[in-house]
């Protein structure tokens, strides 16, 4: 809240009192923060991959160069990874802006939770998930949820990726689900490094990283969980986390159940 106090003058220009104006500037601050975050992302996060791409391309283009095929392939693989990282940042940022502007469009339909879980598991890159044991004890007897299958798949893929990424040994992920009167709750439990209590409340914030060094090395952007939360809340759902450092974490998303017209009618 911005409070402005100004003098009120009478006929003879004498001050006869004070006036006050309250203005809620929360929204303006939010917009400023979004802009500052964008500038900081472009200047920090983009700089490293772009410098590295430039260096590799210049090496490959050196006039006197006669590089071995293997070396060229290695350089091109590095360039490809850097480009992928920049692309991920741009996509994540576009999602964040849409979420913050409440302009994320959802293509909602009745969805079987089992189907989106299986499809998200299949989307995990082979080389990334090769040493992970992923176990889903969800079957197709769960009630349908009402949501956007692409966006919900994106949330699950993100949770699975984090469960594998933040693990020092052999990742073991267990996916379970249950339903109650209004929601289907899907939990993703891992045996990873866990999250210290003092970070727990902040991990859904934009760019929040528990350990910057580690994340940079592992290719995180600090935007993943912010996007997950935004997508789940746009579904009128909830996302929660429980974690013990050194033991593991459990992320649970709760999505409203699909109620057919018949079911609604019966309820009335
Ligand atoms: P990033 O894209 O960097 O992974 P996220 O928004 O997905 O960012 O996660 C934010 C922070 O939460 C990360 O810094 C990471 O340390 C922590 N985190 C997320 N998921 C897990 C998990 N399953 N186990 C341990 N730490 C996690």
From TrEMBL:
Q: Where is the Histidine kinase domain?
A: 41-259
Highest taxon above the source species:
Bacteria
Name listed for the protein in its UniProt record: histidine kinase
What is the organism of origin for this protein?
Sporomusa sphaeroides DSM 2875
| Organism phylogeny | Bacteria, Bacillati, Bacillota, Negativicutes, Selenomonadales
């Amino acid at each position: 809240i911005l409070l402005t106090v100004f003098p009120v003058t009478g006929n003879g220009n004498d001050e006869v009192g004070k006036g006050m104006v309250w203005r809620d500037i929360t929204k303006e601050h939010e917009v400023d923060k979004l802009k500052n975050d964008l500038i900081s992302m472009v200047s920090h996060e983009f700089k490293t991959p772009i410098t590295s791409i430039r260096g590799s391309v210049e090496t490959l283009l050196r006039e006197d160069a006669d590089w071995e095929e293997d070396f060229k392939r290695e350089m091109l693989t590095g360039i490809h990874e850097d480009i992928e990282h920049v692309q991920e940042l741009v996509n994540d940022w576009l999602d964040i802006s849409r979420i913050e502007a409440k302009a994320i469009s959802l293509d909602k339909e009745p969805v079987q939770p089992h189907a989106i879980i299986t499809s998200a598991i299949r989307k995990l890159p082979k080389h990334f998930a090769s040493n992970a044991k992923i176990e889903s004890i969800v079957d197709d007897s769960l009630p349908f949820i009402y949501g956007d299958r692409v966006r919900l798949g994106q949330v699950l893929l993100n949770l699975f990726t984090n469960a594998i990424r933040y693990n020092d040994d052999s990742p073991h992920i267990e996916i379970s689900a249950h339903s109650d009167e209004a929601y289907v709750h899907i939990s993703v439990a891992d045996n990873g490094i866990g999250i210290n209590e003092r970070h727990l409340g902040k991990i859904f914030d934009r760019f929040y990283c528990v350990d910057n060094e580690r994340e940079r090395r592992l290719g995180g952007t600090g935007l993943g969980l912010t996007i997950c939360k935004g997508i789940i809340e746009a579904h009128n759902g909830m996302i929660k986390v429980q974690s013990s450092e050194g033991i593991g974490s459990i992320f649970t998303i709760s999505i409203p159940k699909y109620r057919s017209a018949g079911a609604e009618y019966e309820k009335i």
